[in-house]
């Protein structure tokens, strides 16, 4: 891992996710990286001390904001999102599509609006880029039943939760119908079995 400890990599990921999100609650951040809030607090404290983030104290769930006004915050942002420069000698081309693909690869799943805010463009533009990458099989553009579109890596579990939720809701509905409206349930089952 080129001399970096897993702890340092985790701190860098947390820092970058706060920059991408702009503002995120402590609880959401801990959930994103599957760490306890107790383990997250020292990382956030170091980032605050470095001038990368600011924390607004809420009653039970502090909100962590990216500090774009500090010199260190601007430096971190420029290191995360390189300008769309083309380097001739090395033939390195970095476009918003590359940045989009790298963010999805790195973080697994990201809401469309977060990427739009991060890249300083509108959601429709990011959605069109995502459709291009999706058509090439590089990412998955997922439209949940409720909420905004999500970009994920190929093979991420995004639809499984919804299918499971639908199963449980269907079973719960059938149980409720059986308890309260038995005759409606019987009619439904007869029609369903006959078709």
What does this structure look like?
With 195 residues, the chain is of the alpha+beta class. It has three domains: 1-79, Orthogonal Bundle (Arc Repressor Mutant, subunit A), CATH 1.10.10.10; 81-156, Winged helix-like DNA-binding domain superfamily/Winged helix DNA-binding domain (Arc Repressor Mutant, subunit A), CATH 1.10.10.10; 159-194. The protein contains nine helices and eight strands. A hairpin with a 6-residue loop joins strand 2 and strand 3. The longest helix has 22 residues, at 159-180. The protein is extended and about 70 Å long.
Topology readout:
Blueprint (H helix, E strand, L loop, with lengths): L5 H16 L1 E3 H7 L4 H14 L2 E4 L6 E4 L4 H10 L5 E2 L4 E2 L2 H12 L1 E3 H7 L4 H13 L4 E3 L7 E3 L6 H22 L1 H13 L1
Antiparallel strand pairs: 1-3, 2-3, 4-5, 6-8, 7-8
Helix pairs in contact: 5-7, 6-7, 8-9
How is the CATH topology of the largest domain named?
Arc Repressor Mutant, subunit A
- Strand composition percent: 5-15%
Q: Mind describing the biggest β-sheet?
A: 3 strands, antiparallel
Oligomer: single chain
Can you tell me the CATH class of the largest domain?
Mainly Alpha
Classification by helices and strands: alpha+beta
- Number of folding domains? 3
CATH H-tier superfamily of the largest domain: Winged helix-like DNA-binding domain superfamily/Winged helix DNA-binding domain
Radius of gyration: 22 Å
Number of helical segments? Answer: 9
Query: How would the global form be characterised?
Result: extended
Kindly report the average pLDDT value: 76
Number of strands: 8
Strand order of the largest sheet: 1-3-2
Second-tier CATH architecture of the largest domain: Orthogonal Bundle
> Which series of helices and strands comes N to C?
HEHHEEHEEHEHHEEHH
Cα distance spanning the termini: 59 Å
Helix coverage percent of residues?
A: 55-70%
Low-confidence stretches: 1-6, 82-88
């Amino acid at each position: 891992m080129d001399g970096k400890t897993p702890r340092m990599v985790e701190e860098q990921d947390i820092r970058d996710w706060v920059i991408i999100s702009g503002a995120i609650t402590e609880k959401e951040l801990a959930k994103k990286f599957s760490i306890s809030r107790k383990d997250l607090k020292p990382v956030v404290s170091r980032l605050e001390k470095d001038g990368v983030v600011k924390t607004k104290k809420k009653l039970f769930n502090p909100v962590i904001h990216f500090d774009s006004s500090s010199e260190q915050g601007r430096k971190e942002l420029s290191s995360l999102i390189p300008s769309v420069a083309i380097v001739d000698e090395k033939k390195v081309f970095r476009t918003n599509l590359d940045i989009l693909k790298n963010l999805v690869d790195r973080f697994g799943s990201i809401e469309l609006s977060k990427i739009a805010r991060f890249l300083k463009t509108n959601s429709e533009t990011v959605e069109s880029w995502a459709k291009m990458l999706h058509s090439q099989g590089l990412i998955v553009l997922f439209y949940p039943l409720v909420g905004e579109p999500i970009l994920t890596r190929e093979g991420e579990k995004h639809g499984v939760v919804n299918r499971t939720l639908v199963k449980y809701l269907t079973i719960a509905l059938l149980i409720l119908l059986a308890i309260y409206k038995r005759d409606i349930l019987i009619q439904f089952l007869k029609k369903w079995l006959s078709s």
